[in-house]
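S., here's the first fold you wanted:
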Amino acid sequence: MRHTLTPDLTPDLGARFADIALGHVTREYPNKPDHVLAGPTDARTPSELHPVFYGSYDWHSCVHGYWMLAYLLRRFPGMAPAARIERLFDTHFVHDKVTAECAYLAQPTARGFKRPYGWGWLLKLASELAQHPDARGANTLAPLAEVFAQRYRDFLPLSVYPVRVGTHFNTAFGLRMAADYAQASSDDALSELLASTARRWYGSDTDCPAWGEPSGDDFLSSALIEAECMRRLLPAAEYAPWLDRFLPRIAAHEPATLFRPATVSDRTDGKIAHLDGLNLSRAWCWRGIASALPEGDARHAVAQQAADEHLVHGLPHVAGDYMGEHWLASFAVLALEA
């Protein structure tokens, strides 16, 4: 089988990604707030609303920009941008600013703020900081992480149906990212809630056709992120037969749409630019699926090949127009390090 060579996440590439994020996590404008005004006094600037996560065009992209910086700092502590990242964290991960982020979420109008995409990314950031030798960032962010962990505890029992779109509202993505936090914080009850919800939402899914993929503004594959979610949350002995039922024809490269990288016609259009993210997130998911398959299984090589092809389509476009540049590198790191 032909195998496409893909780059590793080297210190030089990590430094390049870090420079990209350092250029936007404190860039306040342009900005697309997800903000409900209950009255005239609620009309405030992004940095007034969110003193930590006000950059990167929107709150959730800023959060995963910080996640990527934290990850790269731990992965390559000697890279050139390391000192700048540490100074940034010392400036922004401070008690008063995190308290203000928590206060924003306490407002009744913020109940559904960034659910579930931003919830998952904030917990992913917290789980990364928990692995750093310097515990200050994790300790400072802990109250905000607990707000979102509690939102999962409150919301999941109420949510009868999953959301299967390929954008921010996808519930499989939210569960998958929260799983890392539950493990890092040794929160067994939250882990069980996430797993039981995944089983309830997705456990009986079979023979996924993926006929609606990709839509014109997808950055997630609803089929593949579900498979990655279940891989992360189910024991291996339970995941294997589930995958057999859910995607029974991987070895035959079907459904064919999951194996074809998306075409991006205009990277200055924020929605169309999502499709670069789809290629990167598919690579991440395919690599996760491959990791759950034994190397002698024909599907292992097929999944790895699909990951590599999507990755080489997405990586060249991480930087360029700000519509993609403010967020794509995070998904490139997920894919490269899967």
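And the second, which I think is the more interesting of the pair:
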Amino acid sequence: MKLSSIIKLMRPHQYIKNLFIFLPLFFAIKITDTELLANTFIAFIAFSLTASAVYIFNDYHDIEEDRQHSKKKNRPLASGAISKPQAIGIMTILFVAGFTLMASLSLKATAILAAYVIMNIAYSLYLKHIAILDVTIIAIGFILRIFIGSVITDIHLSMWIVIMTFLLALFMALAKRRDDVLIYLDTGKKMRKVINGYNLRFLDTAMAIMAAVIIVAYIQYTTSTEVIERVHNEYLYLTTLFVILGIMRYLKIAFVLKSSGSPSNIVLKDHFIQLILIGWILSFAGILY
């Protein structure tokens, strides 16, 4: 068993999703608080280790299906680089490490982490086969991430942050399902049973609706009296430019480039998206801080 195979099994590239844990700290203008930042970072590590264990559980359960997938067949379990007993051992260690680390910070955050694990186990075993509910579960996972960030830092979450996080996660999950449908149309292989509940017309319409609502929700957030009074600045609406550009770029990746199968890889590899994110962070931080 090679170290490279273990790392690949853990899917560290997916940890970028867990950065949502830092959002409460960022939006509350407390990202410079070293103590809160350190605790949030520990929570990020704890969540990431636990998420890796969940990924291993999913790979273990889907090993036969993954062997039929053009890309997933190269995963350590599906390819045989790591045996089932070895995977169970690694998964157990990660679960224990993740929960122990989170418990050292907050029992409430640990309870949310437990809810995340239970939900994802149910997802892997059954819920991912139910259309619409499958993408909703994925979106709820992102909500739980920001809840953990809120609990760890004792920062109240704005309803707008919760709404926008859910909508954005749902948008990306729909884009991922669209990629699965395209694979089925091109190869005749159903990578997921849930594909029977989707088609391109439905997914394209749903993504367009989500894209529009995300932009409107963000505008509502940046122009709301509550937010303006809290941050003492009325120019946050200017950052809407980057949100619109980001949504449009993602739509192009899904509709034109037909490569929206992995949101994490898009963020890590697409330079246009990276520049937009940097622009949004710098402009938002510049206005707030």
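Why I say that: The CA atoms of residues 129 and 194 lie 5 Å apart. The chain has a mean pLDDT of 91.

Talk tomorrow,
H.
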